[in-house]
TrEMBL record:
InterPro entries: Band_7, Band_7/SPFH_dom_sf. Residues 25-197 form the Band domain. Keywords: Coiled coil. The lineage of its organism: Bacteria, Bacillati, Actinomycetota, Actinomycetes, Kitasatosporales. This is SPFH domain-containing protein. Pfam families: Band_7 (PF01145). Residues 188-215 form a coiled coil. The keyword Zinc-finger does not apply.
Length: 336
């Protein structure tokens, strides 16, 4: 919308570069072009503002396929007004000279024209196409048909409209039909998922079997080695017992020989000791045989006295002392 200001009873219009302004006064063109800025009188001015930029028109409509299935089509048409003079002459783009707002709804009129034209060509294509083909190849077919139909439509150039591009976003069936169409694919996907699950389980079972076989083989090998270990331990124990028995025999034999030698030595020593004692006894008896009996009696008394308990005091009568002295005296004279 143009920017209009008031000053001293006049109006000043300033438009955008994408808006074509057409100013008529008394039926004559005073200003004509995009992005204009000028002064005018509102009572004598007839103004038109035609947008010349590219505009997007989104449209959605229902159609019926060859197998009588309802589908919804979403498309977008890009257009522009290539001849603003012709468009201003065919469509009411006049604006209020005081506010700059359109007096009518020219863009809605253009939208209706383009939508109905595009819908007519799309319906013609979809009515000849089954639902499955429409969902697979319908987007390209409908887009080409709409583009060709709009390019061949004589009313559009006559109105100064040029179609820049056509895009078909989607063609969709009803929700129930769409779910029904998705079911086979979903079942196939589910089957593939189940097959993958079964294969994964089979691989897992195979791996578990391999692991179990490895464990069993390991246990068998361990048992075999344990058997070898037991045999080796028995062999070692037997060898150790044999070695110990042989050592004990050698030790026992050595001990017996040692004891025999000790016994022989002890017997030899005892024999020599006996002989020495016998010789000493013989010599002792021989000496005592030559000794006076009184001396022997005295020695015997001495030995007896040595073995008697301690006597603190002894009282002898004079007769005993006299007798002893007499015996000692006679013994001494006999020795002389």
């Amino acid at each position: 919308m143009a920017d209009i200001t008031r000053r001293f009873g006049l109006r000043h219009l300033r438009s955008a570069p994408t808006a074509h302004i057409r100013h008529l006064r008394a039926g004559k063109v005073v200003h004509d072009g995009p992005g204009l800025s000028f002064w005018y009188r509102s009572l004598s001015a007839a103004l038109s503002e035609v947008p010349v930029d590219d505009r997007e028109l989104a449209m959605s409509f229902h159609a019926r396929t060859a197998d009588f299935q309802d589908v919804s089509t979403q498309a977008t048409v890009t257009y522009r007004i290539s001849d603003p003079v012709t468009a201003a002459a065919r469509i009411d783009f006049s604006v209020d000279p005081d506010t700059g707002a359109w007096r009518g709804a020219p863009l809605e009129q253009l939208a209706t024209l383009l939508t109905e034209t595009a819908q007519q060509h799309a319906l013609d294509v979809l009515a000849r196409t089954p639902l499955a083909a429409a969902l697979v190849d319908g987007v390209a077919a409908v887009r080409e048909r709409i583009a060709a139909g709009l390019a061949a439509e004589p009313r559009l150039p006559a109105t100064g409209i040029e179609v820049v591009a056509v895009r078909v976003v989607a063609i969709r069936p009803e929700a129930e039909v769409e779910r029904a169409l998705r079911t086979p694919a979903r079942e196939l996907i589910q089957q593939e998922a189940d097959r993958a699950t079964y294969e994964r389980r089979a691989v897992a079972v195979e791996r578990e079997r391999a692991i179990a076989e490895n464990e069993l083989a390991s246990q068998i090998e361990l048992a075999r080695r344990e058997e070898q270990l037991v045999d080796q331990r028995g062999t070692n124990a037997r060898r150790e017992a044999e070695t110990k028995a042989a050592a004990d025999g050698v030790r026992t034999e050595a001990e017996a020989i040692r004891k025999v030698r000790i016994a022989k030595a002890e017997a030899e020593a005892a024999r020599e000791v006996g002989q020495a004692r016998a010789q000493a006894q013989s010599a002792w008896l021989e000496v005592h045989g030559r000794t006076d009996p009184a001396v022997l009696h005295a020695l015997a008394a001495t030995r007896v006295a040595e073995n008697l308990p301690r006597i603190e005091s002894l009282t002898l009568s004079p007769d005993v002392v006299t007798g002893l002295l007499a015996k000692l005296g006679s013994s001494a004279s006999g020795e002389r």
